[in-house]
Design brief:
This protein is of the alpha+beta class and 123 residues long. It has one domain: Alpha-Beta Plaits, CATH 3.30.70.1060. The protein contains 3 helices and 6 strands; from the N terminus they run E-H-H-E-E-E-E-H-E. The chain is flat and about 45 Å long. The mean pLDDT is 91.
Length: 123
């Protein structure tokens, strides 16, 4: 089953880490991706640009509204994600615990819904 591991942390706090610390965390994340790939569990992963680059689109009564910034103001922001293939929730949680961002924020573990008929999916 596929799980989306959403990495949340405080951008302001993270930006105050040394370049060396941020680079080490990125290297650790890349190493984790390679370990997951070797086990056939890696699907995709990526850090996100800062929340200030976000654009929010809403459609209400057929009218589109576009605003800058995050949907809600929160203490922690969505910083990146890992999409993995795990046997079950316990295995997905174990993987989430290995993500460096879990040490400075939180990793939300969400199972993906299987929907037939999507491009690239087997029917």
């Amino acid at each position: 089953m596929k799980y989306l591991l959403l990495v949340h942390h405080n951008e302001e706090s993270f930006s105050q880490f040394s370049d060396e610390t941020r680079k080490a965390m990125l290297a650790e994340s890349i190493q984790l991706c390679h370990q997951l790939h070797d086990k056939g569990q890696y699907v995709h992963a990526s850090p996100l640009q800062p929340v200030a680059t976000a654009t929010v689109v809403r459609v209400r009564d057929g009218k589109r509204s576009v605003t800058d910034g995050p949907f809600v103001e929160t203490r922690e922001q969505l910083a990146g994600y890992f999409l993995v293939d795990a046997q079950d929730l316990d295995e997905a949680i174990e993987i989430a615990g290995r993500i460096p961002g879990a040490r400075i924020g939180a990793v939300e573990v969400r199972p993906l819904r299987e929907i037939a008929g999507l491009p690239g999916e087997c029917s």
